[in-house]
Amino acid sequence: MKAPSSASTPASARKAGETSQVFSAKGAQPKRPWWRRDVSAGDRNALWKQLHEQRAEQILEEVLPEPKLPELDPATVSRRGRVRKLPAKLVDHVPSGHNNQLPAHLRVNIPQAHPISPRAASEGDTVDVVVTQSRAESPINTPQYVSDPDDFGIYHVFPIKPKRLPDPPSLDDLCEGMPLANGMPITSLAAPLHAPSGLEKTTAADRPPYAPFPNYSTFALFQWQNNDSSSKSNAQMDDLAELMQHPDFRSEDVAGFSAARESRRLDEYFKEDESSPLSPRDGWKRGSVKIRVPKEGVSHASEDDAPEFTVEGLYHRSLVEVIDAAYHNPSVKGWHIIPSRVFWLQDALPINGNTRPSSDIPRSPSLPAGFSPLSSSASSDTSVSIPEGPRVYGEAYHADAILDEDAAMRARPREAGDPDDLEYVIAPIGLWSDSTHLTSFGSAKLWPVYAYVLSQSKYIRGKPTAFAAHHIAYMPSLPDTIQDWYIRVYGIAATAAVLTFLKRELMQEIWLLLMDEQFMYAYIHGLIIACGDGVRRRMFIRFLLYAADYPEKMLLACLKYFARCPCPRCRINKDKIIEMGTTQDLYRRNWIRVDNDDVNHRIGLARKWIFQHGMSLTSIHISRLLDPLSITPSRSAFSTRLRPHGFNFYSLFVPDLLHEFKLGVWKSIFTHILRLLHAVGNDAIQEFNKRFRQIPTFGRSTIRRFSSNISDQGKLAARDYEARAKCIMPAIEGLMPCTIDNDILLDLSFDAAAWQALGKLREHTDHTISGLDVFTVEFGKSVRLFSKKTCAHYVTVELPKEAAARGRRTAALAGTTTVRKVKTFNLTTYKLHAMRDYPGSIRDHGSTDNNSTQVGELEHKHAKRFYTRTNKVNFQYQIAQLACRSEKLKMIRTRVDAATAARKARTTNVSTASTTQETSEDEAPTSAVTPPVAGSSISPTRRYHIAKSLRVHDEVTSWLREQAKDPALADFVPNLKDHLLARRAHQHGACLPEAGFTRADRARISFVNNKIYWHQVLRVNYTTYDQRRAQDSINPRTRADVMLLAPAGRAHQYMYARIIKIFHVNLYSGDTLDSEDVQRVDVLFVRWFDVVDPGGFGKKRLPRIEFISVGDPNTDAFGFIDPADVIRGAHILPSFSTGRTHSFLGPSLARDGAGGGGVDPNEVDTDWSSYYVNL
Fold first, then answer.
1. Are 1069 and 928 in contact, with CB atoms under 8 Å apart?
2. Burial of residue 48, with CB atoms counted within 10 A of its CB: 0-12 exposed, 13-18 middle, 19 or more buried
3. What are the residue ranges of helices labelled H in 245-336?
4. How confident is the model over 357-402, as pLDDT tens digits?
5. E-state strands within 15-119
6. In angstroms, how far is CA 780 from the centroid of its own chain?
């Protein structure tokens, strides 16, 4: 979807507050904007509505041309002449398939940005849409290599020919939150597992796979003790009972079992073998750091002569040895060691302007299978032109930052003596650090530093159970004894400025210790590693990003907290932040921070004044020197170590979606909306709470049940604010007394939800990044309009909880009653400014889940769980020990599982042909009239799953007689038979009769025993936009709404329905009742929604739908659908502002709990007048 530019959009269609003039309806003379004229409230509402409609019509005319509705097929007309709603047939694409096209319904139109001309911005300029400038694509002047496209047309372009391609993920690796078939991974059904590389020697006859434990029973019992649970629940006891029934478990083996002895055995278990990841060199060390302490008025000959304070309690590991051990891990087989650019062939693979299948790509005999050379200088007989397709950004190893670091490394001369076939690569590292409380009560806390290898997939790094986080250090805080030491040395207590300075110095000294000489040698000269995939490489360590919350970023960057220039990446002034999204703001972002000579000279001069001249840290002279850049007198450790090698450490600090938007910008907006509702009065806040209580849940944990009092603002996590952003539009609609304010709030809510949705995408293309840029600009406009217009109309005060919190802080000092203070809306914060950096960050580092602090927050769970197993004395070291044991146990578990699978493969004589046949049958799409394979559970390869149970059933005639007055069941059997006939015809490729089905046709459909079998749950498997497999669980009583593909040519791409009943019928496959063949057919009985207003990005409104009235003479209100045509569940939200009605349908079973929302007993026979489809 393409957004209009300033030049093409009429002034009356632009947003209020973002243009300098508004033209009259006749277009004659410019007038003063209507919000600056003295007009009545009614005129203001009318003018605003006119502007809003004109803007929406303008955008829709550009991006959504009027569709031509298809002619009706006679078979789609019911016996009463009504149009039957028939969805388009959905073709399921399992990630393990071989189709090179994405499903059409995954292609979404998103507004596109218009590039701006490279001119100097003048004051007062604004722009409707501005694209963030990305790194320029480097010309292809060296040979590059392209891989074959995968099932979805995704292919990789490598800067060099990799010695080995990473192992593709198995289907069970791609499944998210769904049980696997028969509880076993899909790959285990296809091929036996083999001992992973690097562990073969430990699985040999002389060393059992459970080494160092004496037997399997001891290992299994010790691992159960050290599993992910810190409390032994019923499920944990069930696991223990299952463990004791394992065929390899023997009770006599654990006689005299001692957990302490086995812990020591595991702690002492190392292997010096070069190919083993169990190296003793990456163990934990206890250390200390020293910091120089200044005092005002005390001069020293040099900084080195100042007193030193020693901080004990630092536990750390060697960065080099940790990275070395990580690349020895057998999981490296699936890592992307060589970075690559990724492209998407949307339709087919174009070769030199022609469309050919991937198998027709010419290959060089010297290249491994799966590669073709791409080079402007290569010979024409072995080269092909680079296929065109949109660039894809997802993983960090496909983004620009890692490619730039890789190119810079390859531009350097090779190390002397290295053979030509030694592969040179970088080891990209992402860093996370944050302090966390280990208990709900008490002062125990831990300040860990985590390192992640960015060559590993983000889907693995994001799972705490994968133990992908490498604990580098547990940093100590500045101890309380510093004041005693300071008084003893200087005779006076340290000031707050001195303590702040020492905290910054402590952080930098710790990192100087971590980046020791061994690290610097590996950074400059590389480190030869025999990787777990069997390839020897010289690896150069590179830091690509550092994820942390805002205070920690400022501490690491040695910047003043929210000073004149609050951004760690650029030097924008704080008073210009509110202009986020304008042209001037875009150009100001070019003032990027650079670790140059000027910065270092200022810091060096300030430190000289502090230590050698005894100048106060708060001196006006130091402020004049440092404040223009908001820097501090502390020098970054990254600057000290890496600046001589061309590294700009400011580039490490990436935006953080978790703290900066969800818990930052959006939380501030949501909180002020609550203040506005309190100011409005008239029970607006109570109505707001009531509406949120009625919003249905969605997904496994996407939208949870909202609390009874959402305005209470209790201890909420980021996911809670995210859910509020998704669902606030129908809840806030109509609560503001002024229509203008209502529309401004809805626009702001839509922009926030759309920005969050695009920002959270796990896979981007240039198209979606441009769309994110568009909504960043729109969000900036909406925030400024909200602040200037809506917030200015109301006097807002603190929320009751805010006032109570402030009162508790001040009551002891003031001794007075707390009065709720006036609170104004303020978003002049770094967090709002950072929103414009996300598009560029995605291009540089991949999607936001690569660098979100949420990954580090999840890893904190391990530290908190380990803390409960310590004796609470010197717990940092004990946590380090437990973390090391967990990593070793995971490796041993991998060996044991591999050995078990290999043993089963040797003892089980299963032919390859039968295995292939079973797999192909399981992967075949579910036929419309084919029952599920007996014994199969919820296989990810199947389109859907409905239970095989026959317990709940009804005789059709008797059931319909009992429901004779229900209007939903009119013509139930004839319509069901028409549906079954249509599915049977589609299955056999037959054409539907022009005159529709006759009574004779229906007579050929016979139900076995005239019974219908009811079910409670439908599970739908679907492929996500990032080529993974997910599942929705649909229940008519709780989550009953689904979406389907609309036929081609419709104005809206999807159809929506509410499932009333899930059932199956058994049919005689022949035309007579004597046929022995019985077929099961799964059917969904649904109530149709009709799309009233498609909404969309142009209108900034959600699609609005309503039920079709049972009395509608033109369209059937009810119908039947094939479960295989369901795309997935849909989150349908009531339109609370339009109220409820009984005009669509009288009392009926169609309302028995459908929708999942709580319904007042007095409204049980009513429906909401309309609904919204949550995007």
1. no
2. buried
3. 259-267, 319-328
4. 333 333 333 334 444 444 333 333 444 455 568 999 999 999 999 9
5. 22-23, 30-31
6. 23
